[in-house]
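Notes from the 1:1 (GR / supervisor)

We went over the backlog. Supervisor wanted to see one worked example end to end before approving the batch request, so GR pasted a single chain during the call. The sequence is below; no edits were made to it. Supervisor asked that the structure be written out right there so they could see what the output format looks like.
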Amino acid sequence: MDISESEDESYNNLLKKQTKKRPRYGRVTDVNKKLRATTHELGPSCECKRFKCFEVINEDQRYEIIRQFNELGNYQDQNLYLGGLITVHSVAQRRSRKTNNEGEPHQASYSYRVKCASKDVPVCQNAFRSLHGITGRRIQTLQSQLINEGKIQKDRRGKHDNRPRRLKDSVLEHIHGHIKSLKGRKSHYSLHESNKYTYLKN
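Structure output shown during the call:
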C-alpha cells in the first residue's frame, strides 16, 4: 500500500467518525414531561383561619413536602400519591339558593391532608394546592376520578381511540401493497446503513 492509499483510508475513517449520528436520549416532549413533574414550586400562603395551615406547618416542613412530591418523578405516581391524601365525604348539609329544578348540588365534599413529620396534618384545599405546587384543575380531575371510579385512574391523555381521521387497516394494506409494487433501488451511499430504505427511480 503506497502513501496516497493510506492517506485516503485515514481520511475516510476520519469522515466516518465525524458523520456519526448523535445517540438519542429521548424526545423533547419526554424531557419536558420529566421537567414539569420534578420542578413543582411552593405556592403562596392560604391564610386559612380554620386550620392555620402555614402556621402549623413550618417553612422547613413545607420544603420537605414539595421535595418529596417532586422526587416521585412522574405524573401518574404523583396522582396516586395525591389521591391517597384526599378523602371523600357525603354532603352533610346542602345550602343551594336556587330552586330544586335549577339547583346543582355538589356530589360530595372533600377533606385534605399532607404528610408532615410522619403524621397526617389536615389542611384546606388552597394549602393542599400550594404545598404541592399544583393547579385547581388537577384537583378537580382527581376529585372526579374518586367520585366516578372510586380510585385514581391511569393517565389516558393521548391514548383514547376516538381518531376520526385514522385510516382503516384495509386502506393501509392497500397503500403498503401499492408502494411495494413500485420498482425502487437501494441507495449507493452507505450501503451497509441504508438496507432498509428504497428509493424510487426517476
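Supervisor's comment: Helices lie at 3-18, 28-38, 53-56, 59-71, 75-83, 125-132, 136-148, 169-181.
Batch request approved.
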